[in-house]
Amino acid sequence: MIRAYKFLLRPTARQAVALGEMLRDHCSLYNGALQERRDAYRHGSKTTVKYGDQSAQLKEIRTFDPECQGRWSFSSQQATLRRLDKAFQAFFRRVKAGQTPGYPRFKGVGHFDTVTFPKDGDGCRWDSTSHGRQTRVRLQGVGHVRVHQHRPVQGHVKTISVKREGIRWYVVLACDNVPAEELPPTGEVIGIDMGIARFLTTSDGGHVANPRFLEAMAEELAEAQRHLATFPKRTRRRTKAHRAAARKVAKLHGKIRRQRADFHHKTARALVTGHDVIAHEQLNTAGMTKSPAPKPDPDQSGSFLPNGATAKARLNRSILDAGWAQFLGILTNKAESAGRLVVPVDARNTSRTCPECWHVAKENRVSQAKFQCTACGFTANADHVGATNVLNRAGLALCAAA
To answer: Can you tell me the distance from the alpha carbon of 106 to that of 103, in angstroms, rounded to the nearest whole number?
Structure first.
């Protein structure tokens, strides 16, 4: 299996400055390569600038600018150029598919947060011989940086990435040939129904409360954002006070993100430990959180009718705060490592189908919490009914596959 390990870096003050310079110089390389492609297109060049052309120029660039580009790993700079090339490939793919293309844009220094080393030992070395919780990773141009290794690394380290999140630095190891750690069978199967009022409900009647991390810190976050907005545009990014205000907002967002990820990992681990088969709804979170289309007023040109955008925005915020997609991804990865089976099923009408007589009707869902079948009169918690139907559909899918 392929797995990623993410560890906190503990650089010295000098190393932190060098890491910031490494990101800045790679960002400059990315933007310069993007500018070259834009200029070639504007001048009507029939020869498209590709990754191979730009990679061949790296040697000259490093020789011309040894203080900035010349001191970093050659392979990491190639990885940055591949990153731009992938952005253009995705752009042309969306153009052919008739989707919104989204032309690649220049990266600000504050938004370019990752540098990748494609091979362990080429500009970056993971020191696996260290003992204890503090190991080290060697980065070209930075030195040996301490790593808070909170769990052992298994498999073979393939690529190493250095990532900045707010004021913290992380190292991400992508490893292959990671052995599976299969758990003993339990003989238990379960279906889960994702929700907003409750994070999830299981087919055996259990509920997991929705922690609503973003809502819990909404006031503090709003105050920090208001303070950041008080700085006039002409002084932004130029004063120490503005940088401190921006770090405050980033720190709060980082705390919310870590709390949510911790909750997802613990909830997924509990499900994987206690069940052999876990069924869940196949949710299109991106489509569910899409803003409603405007409704032009046929009687007044240039005017629009109410489309419920405000209420939809609150629902979208709650869905994104719950983080369903991230949780289901974590659940799938943990199940694969533990030798468990995760079965996604069609989510349509799971909360409108009676598990007793299979009658499907919108009227069966009396309220957010209550289900009452209009055909047979069966009454139960609506989320429990949804989880039960998810489990039933997973059973039919497994029988059909067998």
So the answer is: 10
